[in-house]
Prior knowledge:
This protein is of the alpha/beta class. It has two domains: 2-140 and 170-257, Alpha/Beta hydrolase fold, catalytic domain (Rossmann fold); 306-395, K homology (KH) domain (GMP Synthetase, Chain A, domain 3). 32% of the residues lie in helices and 25% in strands. The protein has twelve helices and 15 strands. The chain has helices at 45-55, 81-97, 110-118, 148-154, 170-178, 181-185, 206-214, 234-249, 254-257, 306-329, 375-385, 389-395; strands at residues 2-10, 16-24, 30-35, 59-64, 104-108, 127-131, 156-161, 164-169, 191-196, 219-223, 268-272, 280-284, 287-291, 335-346, 359-370. The strands form four sheets. An eight-stranded mixed beta sheet has the order 1-2-4-3-5-6-9-10, sandwiched between helices. Residues 255-260 have low confidence and may be disordered.
Amino acid sequence: MIETEKLEFEGSQGARLAARLDRPLAPARATALFAHCFTCSKDLAAASRLARGLAGRGIAVLRFDFTGLGHSEGEFAHTDFSSNVEDLVRAADFLRERGQAPSILVGHSLGGAAVLAAAPRVPEVRAVATIGAPSDPAHVKRLLTDDLEEIESRGQATVELAGRAFQIRREFLDDLDEQRLLPSLEKLRRALLVMHSPVDTVVGIENATRLYQAAKHPKSFVSLDTADHLLSRREDAAYAAEVLAAWAARFLPESESDPAATPAEGEVVVEETGEGRFHQSVAVGRHRLVADEPATVGGTDRGPAPYDFLLAGLGACTSMTLRLYAERKGWPLERVSVRLRHSKIHATDCEACETQSGRLDRIDRAIALEGPLSVEQKERLLEMADRCPVHRTLESEVEVRTREA
């Protein structure tokens, strides 16, 4: 499961830039910074699917709208490729201030060229991935062919791209012409993944060849086969996210790849994450969970509370016990569901309890049994619920020994 947080930060030109942080509920293995394509936005289907796909694989992703695009403030007409790179650096600074400096940069189309240019200025970055990126930012001028003459002669022109009107100035073209991306790849000193479709009609596959050849190892190339330039199909974005996450894991430090120590068999490890007063990382074998408290008591409500885990353990044990018993007896039990609630009651309200003063804990458990069971079979199953191991543990004397680790 993942969650998305709306954020904003100050861009290179002083405008407030709108952003979204997609992250797993459990502590992230790493943070990635994503740059969208030319005149696109962070909410483009491909950007959203890719970010959520990475978050589902343990990598938090910040995606944002460049100055003057999407929900960000500022004038697009006053931006250029260099200002986009500056926006990326500002985004990395913003993440660093939150204690989430990006170790991965991901760029789509012109955003791919932008992350390559920004990478040397983000010291924490260990891996850079491009998707359908041009080898020369000036490639964008091909989209403006019909308007180049007017831009050159008048200094600016209104052009239509993807059904939307944009103001393009001559300074934008001049900035593109000044970029020297390929020579800078020799000094990238980061792992590079080039992802490109051989049938991309917007940015040809030859751009991927030039990027790959110019870069030093470690470098990798992955063909996106039949995908279009915008990764319009859901399955193409999902594939890109899956490959990217697996590839990037090789270049992350151990502390990022596995934020919680791997527990020994039969052991559970719980650690603070630092993301709120009560937010905890819970490691159970290879499984990663989170614990938290509701916002009403000072938590961030990003995971179950401790007593919720207690009830979940009792409920799961109850259901499993009844399933095993019914199978052993050959009874037609089709489905079990268990509802539980924890509360504190006055001891005097519990006639069967030995404690008759103060307050004590009570768990109410309601069990639904589906299937053509007889009355006797249902009664027996309800009796067996009290024999589940967790139930017996809760009702027995338990010794908890505490020591300094």
